[in-house]
Amino acid sequence: MEEKELVSLLKKGDRLAFEHLYHNYKHRLYGNLRKILKSDSAAQELLQQLFVKIWENRLSLDPDKVFKAYLFSIAENLAYDFFRKAARDKNLEARLMTVATEGYSYIEEALYRKESVAILNRAVASLPPQRRHVFTLCKLEGKTYEEVSVELGISTSTINDHIVKGTRSVKEYLFLSKDFALLLLSAAIAFL
Length: 192
Known about the structure:
This protein is an all-alpha fold. The chain contains eight helices and no strands.
């Protein structure tokens, strides 16, 4: 049978005409799609889509037009659509990765800060009560030695002594504790 006759029969819904046209063109179309897409599976998928489109739009076929050119035109358009979709998917993936990474960084930084504060609080809690109180007022609340001196009724030199010894104790606590190793590890991970 001639191609024109097969297309006329296909237009009327003849499955045998469809199968005959499919078998006549599938290898050439597949080869062309494979060359464009550089992927066996993508070429196979688009080949199937092409013939599904042909079947679904069979009523609009014109038997007087060159069917082969029509098939190759559809195949080319499907390949372009495939690349456009892949580019959109890649752009979407990149945007999602950026948003997810930014969100993860904020969460990671917040956890790091929270953990650092907890470690510092444990170090300060290890100080004797009066030294802890002076250290908290000066170092954590930002009050001056004079303000603390008036508030607690002790000399600024005593406050200075508490701060020097408190700072030394906090540093020793951090360096000798497992928490310091955890703090360093957290800091190292945050910079990766």
